[in-house]
Amino acid sequence: MTSSLNTHLAAQQGHALRKLLIVTAIAAGVLLGLGFWLAKKQGAFDDNLVLRFTTASGEHLSNGMKVVYQGFPVGQVKNLELTSSGQIQGALEVKEKYRNLATTGSTLELASAKLVGAELILRKHPTSTDGFKNNDAIDLKHFDLAHDLEKKVLEKIDPAIARVMAVTAEISDPNKGLPATLGNINKTLVSTEKLLSSLNARAQDPRVDHMLTNLDLGSASMVRNAELTEKTMQSARQVLGSTQKVMESTQKTMESTNSLVQKTEQTLQDFRQGGVGKWIAPARPANSASAPKN
């Protein structure tokens, strides 16, 4: 009876051990499959493209920094180190499915601005179709977003200012501008005044026939003066019309510039309201923004 009991206990222990081994094997398989899936999801088995770059300053650069193309992440910075010569050498990985975007002649731009942080932008060469090979060098250029925005605003304002200055110079021209026109009008009025004075004096002359003759001559002179006055006024209207058109063009340009600045401010506010934006570029208090710079 004792030996039968021992045999039964040994059988139960063997069965429990087999169950434990089966559960352990299943758990190990699940963990192995999960690890393989995570590694594949992270791109461990992808044929990623590794490119190297060199720059004089590591400011705004960091390990893990995303590389974007048209606003979409296509890779990241994998390594940064300071060489003995003082240069910064780095390496970045471009995901396998985006390798065709990194063609020879493409460049990297480190777009930085004080308020919105920095990002590494891949600029694809417009005509090249040959792709980079692993460990090829790619040029890195620094790009100041705030300076570029200021340049674009000035490019819109400068032509309008130049047109206003040209019209102002034309108006103030002593030979053809508004002063000359007003001078001609004044001369016409003086001539008319002299003619009227002459007519008034001659009206007292008893020699009526002689007065009538002179009156005919004076009338012809008045007609000529009136024609000169009309031409002078037409010239003045043309100058004033040109001035009005330039001022309207200037107003439209200033409205376009104001709209551009408002859109830029709205973009910055939207960025600050985002999760990452609040950490990278928090809104400055009103009192600190209005404080004078030392």
Outline:
Helix content is 57%, strand content 17%. By secondary structure, it is of the alpha/beta class.
Structure description:
- With 294 residues, this protein is of the alpha/beta class.
- It has six helices and eight strands, in the order αββββββββααααα.
- The chain has helices at 2-41, 145-171, 178-202, 208-273, 275-280, 286-290; strands at residues 49-55, 66-69, 72-82, 88-94, 107-113, 117-123, 136-137, 139-144.
- It has an eight-stranded mixed sheet with strand order 7-1-4-3-2-6-5-8.
- A hairpin with a 2-residue loop joins strand 2 (66-69) and strand 3.
- The chain is rod-shaped, with a radius of gyration of 43 Å.
Q: Which H/E pattern describes the elements?
A: HEEEEEEEEHHHHH
Please give the count of helices: 6
Uncertain runs: 288-294
Oligomer kind: single chain
Average residue pLDDT: 77
Largest β sheet strand count, sense and barrel closure: 8 strands, mixed
Strand content: 15-25%
Estimate percent helicity: 55-70%
Protein traits:
single chain, 294 residues, alpha/beta, 8-stranded mixed β-sheet, 57% helix, rod-shaped, disordered C terminus
Write the layout of secondary structure elements.
Blueprint: H1 2-41, E1 49-55, E2 66-69, E3 72-82, E4 88-94, E5 107-113, E6 117-123, E7 136-137, E8 139-144, H2 145-171, H3 178-202, H4 208-273, H5 275-280, H6 286-290
Parallel strand pairs: 1-7, 2-6, 5-8
Antiparallel strand pairs: 1-4, 2-3, 3-4, 5-6
Helix pairs in contact: 2-4, 3-4
